[in-house]
């Protein structure tokens, strides 16, 4: 039985599935705060966070700031507080505000690389997505090991590149753009699409037109296009499904693979509309109840025509 001590908890190796699990008893002490009352992230007298590690200034105040996570999963686990405003939301943000959040993710990702095999960047929205504090925030967590799905994705992409000389992500985009029925919106930088075989109803992947391994190295123009696309799709999802819970996750090259020609980054939006039940648990196979072609058509219909090309 293999265990690794890890920041007040343990990483345990499941030798049957060849995968890690995390034992983090301290996480159960997280406070649950939904209103402005008692919110530790709202600026003012009630503000209560560990000392700030990074901020994007805005006049005398801040636009986005990073602080260590008080209920950390690792010694590299930060919260990105996305706005000083408690009711701010990524779906109603300006493009500049959304781009500032993405820039914070890039900055903190680069900062965490030394000593981390993999860095998770994610945003939870709504109680069903695991949120404990309602104030808009995202999280960056560095892991000392590479997860099994990340290792497998890397291996599949490497094999495809070795066989064809092309990136798997670019080949997938070529097929999706010529088919068209699963495209939600696109511009010259970013394509948002419903994956052919996804893991959840209304799942959307945001992919750069030109495949690249490292999300943190994406240029400003790509980050702004991603911000525009994200807020448009999130607004469409909110209107279509009355503000559903979701997780937003950055898939990017693990540490050491930032320049790998076969690797590619994407940002994935996974709505939490259904609870994984017995079949999923028994087989590991997700059950999706809304066809991606239907979901894409409904979201597309709610997005301003100027964003759809
Ligand atoms: Zn707040």
UniProtKB/TrEMBL annotation:
<protein>
    <submittedName>
        <fullName>Galactose-1-phosphate uridylyltransferase</fullName>
    </submittedName>
</protein>
<dbReference type="InterPro" id="IPR053177">
    <property type="entry name" value="ADP-glucose_phosphorylase"/>
</dbReference>
<dbReference type="InterPro" id="IPR036265">
    <property type="entry name" value="HIT-like_sf"/>
</dbReference>
<dbReference type="GO" id="GO:0006012">
    <property type="term" value="P:galactose metabolic process"/>
</dbReference>
<feature type="active site" description="Tele-UMP-histidine intermediate">
    <location>
        <position position="137"/>
    </location>
</feature>
<dbReference type="InterPro" id="IPR001937">
    <property type="entry name" value="GalP_UDPtransf1"/>
</dbReference>
<dbReference type="GO" id="GO:0008270">
    <property type="term" value="F:zinc ion binding"/>
</dbReference>
<keyword id="KW-0548">Nucleotidyltransferase</keyword>
<keyword id="KW-0808">Transferase</keyword>
<feature type="domain" description="Galactose-1-phosphate uridyl transferase N-terminal">
    <location>
        <begin position="77"/>
        <end position="140"/>
    </location>
</feature>
<dbReference type="Pfam" id="PF01087">
    <property type="entry name" value="GalP_UDP_transf"/>
</dbReference>
<dbReference type="GO" id="GO:0008108">
    <property type="term" value="F:UDP-glucose:hexose-1-phosphate uridylyltransferase activity"/>
</dbReference>
<keyword id="KW-0119">Carbohydrate metabolism</keyword>
<dbReference type="InterPro" id="IPR005849">
    <property type="entry name" value="GalP_Utransf_N"/>
</dbReference>
């Amino acid at each position: 039985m293999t265990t690794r001590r890890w920041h007040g908890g343990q990483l345990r190796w499941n030798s049957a599935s060849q995968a890690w699990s995390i034992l983090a008893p301290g996480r159960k002490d997280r406070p649950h705060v939904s209103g402005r009352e008692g919110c530790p992230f709202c600026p003012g007298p009630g503000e209560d966070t560990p000392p700030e590690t990074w901020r994007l200034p805005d006049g005398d105040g801040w636009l986005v700031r990073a602080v260590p996570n008080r209920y950390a999963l690792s010694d590299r686990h930060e919260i990105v507080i996305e706005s000083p405003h408690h009711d701010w939301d990524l779906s109603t943000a300006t493009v500049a505000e959304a781009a500032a959040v993405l820039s914070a993710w890039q900055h903190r990702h680069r900062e965490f690389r030394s000593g981390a095999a993999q860095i998770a960047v994610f945003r939870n929205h709504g109680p069903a997505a695991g949120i404990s504090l309602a104030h808009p925030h995202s999280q960056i967590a560095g892991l000392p090991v590479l997860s099994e799905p990340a290792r497998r994705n890397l291996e599949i992409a490497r094999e495809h590149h070795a066989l064809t000389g092309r990136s798997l992500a670019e080949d997938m985009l070529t097929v999706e753009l010529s088919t068209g029925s699963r495209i939600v919106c696109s511009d010259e930088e970013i394509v948002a699409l419903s994956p052919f075989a996804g893991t959840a109803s209304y799942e959307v992947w945001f992919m750069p037109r030109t495949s690249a391994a490292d999300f943190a190295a994406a240029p400003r123009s790509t980050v702004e296009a991603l911000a525009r696309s994200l807020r448009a799709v999130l607004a469409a999802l909110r209107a279509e499904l009355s503000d559903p819970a979701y997780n937003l996750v950055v898939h990017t090259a693990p540490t050491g693979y930032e320049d790998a020609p076969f690797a590619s980054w994407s940002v994935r939006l996974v709505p939490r509309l259904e609870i994984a039940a017995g079949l999923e648990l028994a087989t590991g196979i997700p059950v999706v109840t809304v066809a991606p072609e239907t979901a894409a058509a409904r979201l597309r219909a709610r997005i301003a025509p100027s964003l759809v090309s």
